[in-house]
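Pipeline run #58 for the internal structure catalog. This entry was flagged by the ingest filter as a single-chain record with no existing model, so it goes straight to prediction. Upstream metadata was stripped on purpose; only the residue string is passed forward. Reviewer on rotation: M.T. Logging verbosity set to normal.
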Amino acid sequence: MFVTQARDDDSGLLRRMEGIEVLGAGGSAAGMTPWAAENPSSAYAASTDTLPRIEVDAAKHRQRIDGFGASITEATGDLWAHAVNDPDQMIRDLFDPIDGIGLSMLRQPIGPSDHVTRPYSFVRRWPDKRLRSLRFTVEEQRILPMLEAAQAASLRDVERDDGRLDARRYASRTAIRAAARAATQNAGQQRQGLRIIASPWSAPWWMKTNLSVLGRRRAWPHCVGRLRRSYYDAYARYLAAFVRLYRDHGFDVFGLTPVNEPDNAQAVWPSMAMNPEEQAAFIAEYLAPRLQTEGLGEVNIMCWDHNYSTERYPEGDFVKQFYAHGGALQATAGSAWHYYGGSASVMSRIHERWPNKGIWMTEASGGDWGPRNWEAALLGMSGRVIAMLRNWAQCVVLWNIALDTDGGPDYYYLRHDRQHSRNRGLLTIDRASGVITKNADYYVIGHFSRFVPVGSRCVGSVASHDIPGVHHVAFLTSDDHLVLVANNEDAAAQRIAIQDGCELRPIELPPRSLSTVVWEH
């Protein structure tokens, strides 16, 4: 069992993915946690049969897990290259499956997002309908070096390690031995690298109706920036070229969305409006055929890439209208979602109507506008991530890997909003000292990415009766281990038992904590 716990005074974290041995099946006293030893009235001294239970049903397979991660924005790449004391250690902490949290998926902006050091463009001339001046120099110089370092760390040859990884990942000695056997059997097999979902914030300005990379211009606020129909083909080739760039650099481009937040065209940062009809026509008639022509047909095209609900498209209405177009429905692998508005249950309703279409969570940022460090971020963000996964999300990708103490670099916020972003990365980097702070968000995503590898399955988990303040989700890994991730929002410890078939495992969830329990199925 691994525990991250907030301090009582909310000044930081008391525990950071601290490993604790728990009782084996049947409730033997061996392996009592330090917490239980100090509290004789704890769950371990009580009758297991009287405890509230979380029943894990490994036979009830739900969605496949495609990865966990965040984004290496141009801002993050700049901090890694110029502000960090030990960039290699930063990469290991994030992507190394042995010494870090093993992030497995990245959502990469195509061109400038809201977090950049300065504006840039991949197309030098305008208008350039044939894209003869298309160059990805900025991407290759400022972003891909960090991605390549991350890829190398994620591919570390864990099979030849001395067993330290298994001891850290699994609390059960039986599970440790099983994992060691699996590692020996799989030695020499090539490991899968990072998966990439690519998302543009805007088309190049000259492809748009308002002639701006922004969604709206302050001097021309009523003209919303949309993709001109005459440039649909050029934009499809533009996106395909970016995918090819990443493929040529050895990255697995798993997914592609037509635009980030198509219902959020605004005057602060790059953005572009698209309604369901426009997106359906663009994907079915231009983007999907272009990817096929370029030999990239296996890339998963994802529609929407926005909130559970927006004012114009409440309760997933954009996706419902988009799927009404037969050609677009056929050309699209599924939908991508953000958590900034509405309820995660919207994804379940979409899944019920279109069970063969995938659902991916592509952005969820922390910041001073929402759940602040530490307690609110640990409990609030973990509760939301659990809700995403219980509502069919196949991946969870947070936002920036790293930002500085001002929530930057954030050129567009300062230029157009006259203030810093107030966003928070997984890491905060102090530019003056080069010191890295691991935020609560780092540990939240780590409680999943470190223990739930790509290819795992979300499985059924249900509480025998209401356990106030406890949220949970369970997984079955490809090496036949069960993983339960649960948070406890209560100010008191929660004594519960995990039921797996006929076996009961009593555990105690510390107050204000997030816990991951792993055992052999």
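catalog note: The longest helix spans residues 137-154.
catalog note: The chain has 14 helices and 22 strands.
status: ready for reviewer M.T.
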